[in-house]
């Protein structure tokens, strides 16, 4: 049945390596851990079983944007899925839960912070759950690079859906310590682990050193061809480098989390269709982007860990063809990595102050707020209290790990609406011409509006009607006020959830495990990143493999270290087989008429310097191997 489902819904005749083994383990009811590198096809390992098993498959994932993309992609294939996260309205949440109860949804994507809502957990008890999936499972481990305390609630979720329900944990990169931690936290029973090697034989890891990076980036891109990604760490740099590359005749676009959803889609589409060669992006780009023919991934700025680097570099060469993963590193990068550790762990009194100011900003009284979800305008918060953004964001993450709040950054959502009035009633309402045009365009452009919330684009509607986006927005608000539709405009506001009632700052205690131990682990990850980039003697592919617990047998032969070693070995072999400087001089001086010393120097440079040749000639004269007459050198018998 699994093969027929694969063919029917995805159009594939066979599974990728390791997919089928994981699926078989899940269908046998076994707790399963799948370690599949980026591009290994993790989603199919639970989507196929979900279509076979009765009831609902629950997928816990922290990536809200990817959650939406997967629900849309499944809908395109005729598979109904729903999602639950804090950015939904109560009406949307109720509709999603009703679909699960009625068997009209096979997969329910759940963000981890929803697991802190007791009402939501209670509603899950009414569902028939056949499989619990934990995507990005490394987030449950405090040894992992992206630990999220809300993931620890999954153990409780397992008790709610039933201990007999198997768990499938998936991640693209995990060290042996993290792998063990995942299975321990999830209470694996007789676990089965499927780990595909982290080896990417078609990927060459290259490091290039340059303190001024722009010329090096241009040199790399002009000397290679094909679709490329350039990773940076700031939104401003995406724009600056994209402009630089376009000026140099290399079609490029900038991509970061601050773009409107429509802009993201348009830029992704142009890049996927090869209208744009280079995407200059922050790490917001790549998750769920299925483009197999990326020939080059450049890290202009260094990530903080090898886990992050491996995932991002691994987006190159998914089609199996030769591809390059290039790091451009400068002297300042070591110091920047160290500074990143300090920014990630600001002083504890600063963390307590951020907690106090956040409560003031949201008007949450001491002793109040437990379980409440608040929209949290981070930029306005920082400007109101004159706070440095990076340490402030780190403070909120530490408060999340310490269990005081849940700070959710990734909440950019597309506009969506549902028609709540019966079709025949729509014709009875009185509308101005522009609003009438907007309504008719929406009804013609989108399907399923009477049954579910559908994502819309105000920009597309505006372009069709030759109106401004603001006019479309106002028309949709009018229709919403008339109760013809339920309209939810796009939002990019993060959320802050109080997981305990607000405390006084003096009662804020940051545990050693959350602060000191996590800092030590980040320092270790940063140290491994430095060793990978700035080490010049070990094969770079092997350095990665050893970090992830593998024992490679031999160097890759393709990274810059291996290529340099091979070049050096060749020069040494040539040197060993070449005649010595004395032998070369005597051979040339053995002519009957001898040879001018200037000709000897000309013949033996640049292999030897003029000083070395002159010194060797003097030594041979002193030991009666040569004679000198003016400038003519002759060999003596």
TrEMBL record:
Catalytic activity, reaction form: Couples ATP hydrolysis with the unwinding of duplex DNA by translocating in the 3'-5' direction
Molecular function terms, GO-annotated: 3'-5' DNA helicase activity; ATP binding; DNA binding; four-way junction helicase activity; hydrolase activity; metal ion binding
InterPro entries in the record: DEAD/DEAH_box_helicase_dom (IPR011545), DNA/RNA_helicase_DEAH_CS (IPR002464), DNA_helicase_ATP-dep_RecQ (IPR004589), Helicase_ATP-bd (IPR014001), Helicase_C-like (IPR001650), P-loop_NTPase (IPR027417), RecQ_Zn-bd (IPR032284), WH-like_DNA-bd_sf (IPR036388)
Transmembrane segments: none
Domain Helicase C-terminal positions: 216-365
Any one Gene Ontology cellular component term annotated for this protein: replisome
Family note: Belongs to the helicase family. RecQ subfamily.
Name by which UniProt lists this protein: ATP-dependent DNA helicase RecQ
Provenance organism: Duncaniella freteri
């Amino acid at each position: 049945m699994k093969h027929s489902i694969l063919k029917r819904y995805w159009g594939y005749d066979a599974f990728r390596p390791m997919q089928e083994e994981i699926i078989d383990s899940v269908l046998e009811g076994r707790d399963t851990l799948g370690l599949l590198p980026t591009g290994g096809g993790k989603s199919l390992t639970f989507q196929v079983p979900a279509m076979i098993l009765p009831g609902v498959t629950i997928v816990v994932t922290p990536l809200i944007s990817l959650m939406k993309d997967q629900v849309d992609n499944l809908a395109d294939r005729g598979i109904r899925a729903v999602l639950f996260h804090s950015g939904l309205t109560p009406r949307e949440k109720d509709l999603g839960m009703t679909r699960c109860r009625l068997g009209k949804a096979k997969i329910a994507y759940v963000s981890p912070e929803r697991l802190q809502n007791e009402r939501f957990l209670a509603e899950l008890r009414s569902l028939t759950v056949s499989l619990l999936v934990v995507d990005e499972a490394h987030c449950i481990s405090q040894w992992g690079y992206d630990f999220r305390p809300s993931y620890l609630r999954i153990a409780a979720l397992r008790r709610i859906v039933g201990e007999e329900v198997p768990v499938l944990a998936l991640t693209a990169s995990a060290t042996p310590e993290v792998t063990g931690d995942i299975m321990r936290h999830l209470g694996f029973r007789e676990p089965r682990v499927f780990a595909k090697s982290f080896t990417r034989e078609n990927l060459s890891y290259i490091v290039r050193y340059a303190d001024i990076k722009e010329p090096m980036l241009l040199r790399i891109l002009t000397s290679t061809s094909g679709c490329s990604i350039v990773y940076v760490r700031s939104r401003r740099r995406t724009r600056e480098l994209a402009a630089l590359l376009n000026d140099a005749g290399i079609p490029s676009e900038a991509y970061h989390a601050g773009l409107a959803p429509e802009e993201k889609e348009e830029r992704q589409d142009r890049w996927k269709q090869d209208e744009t060669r280079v995407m200059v992006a922050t790490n917001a780009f790549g998750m769920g982007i299925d483009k197999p023919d990326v020939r080059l991934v450049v890290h202009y700025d260094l990530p903080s860990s090898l886990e992050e680097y491996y995932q991002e570099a691994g987006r190159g060469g998914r089609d199996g063809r030769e591809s390059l993963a290039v790091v451009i590193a400068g002297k300042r990068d070591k110091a920047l990595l160290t500074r990143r550790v300090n920014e990630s762990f600001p002083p504890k009194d600063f963390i307590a102050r951020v907690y106090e100011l956040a409560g003031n900003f949201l008007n949450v009284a001491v002793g109040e707020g437990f379980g409440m979800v608040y929209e949290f305008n981070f930029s306005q918060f920082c400007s109101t209290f004159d706070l440095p953004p990076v340490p402030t964001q780190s403070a909120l993450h530490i408060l999340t790990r310490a269990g005081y709040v849940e700070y959710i950054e990734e909440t950019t959502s597309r506009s969506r609406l549902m028609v709540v009035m019966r079709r025949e009633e729509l014709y009875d309402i009185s509308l101005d011409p522009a609003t009438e045009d907007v309504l008719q365009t929406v009804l013609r452009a989108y399907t399923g509006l009477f049954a579910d919330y559908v994502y819309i684009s105000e920009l597309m509607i505006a372009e069709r009607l030759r109106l401004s986006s603001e006019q479309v927005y106002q028309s949709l608000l009018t229709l919403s006020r008339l109760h013809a539709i339920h309209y939810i405009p796009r939002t990019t506001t993060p959320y802050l959830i109080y997981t305990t009632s607000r405390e006084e700052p003096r009662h804020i205690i940051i545990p050693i495990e959350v602060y000191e131990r996590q800092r030590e682990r980040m320092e270790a990850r940063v140290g491994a990143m430095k060793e990978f980039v700035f080490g010049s003697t070990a094969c770079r592919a092997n350095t990665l493999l050893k970090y992830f617990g593998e024992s490679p047998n031999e160097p890759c032969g393709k990274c810059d270290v291996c290529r340099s070693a091979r070049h050096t070995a060749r020069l040494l072999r040539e040197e060993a087989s070449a005649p010595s400087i004395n032998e070369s001089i005597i051979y040339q001086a053995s002519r009957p008429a001898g040879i001018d010393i200037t000709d000897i120097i000309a013949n033996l440079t640049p292999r030897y310097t003029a000083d070395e040749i002159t010194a060797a000639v003097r030594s041979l004269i002193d030991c009666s191997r040569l004679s000198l007459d003016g400038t003519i050198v002759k060999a003596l018998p």
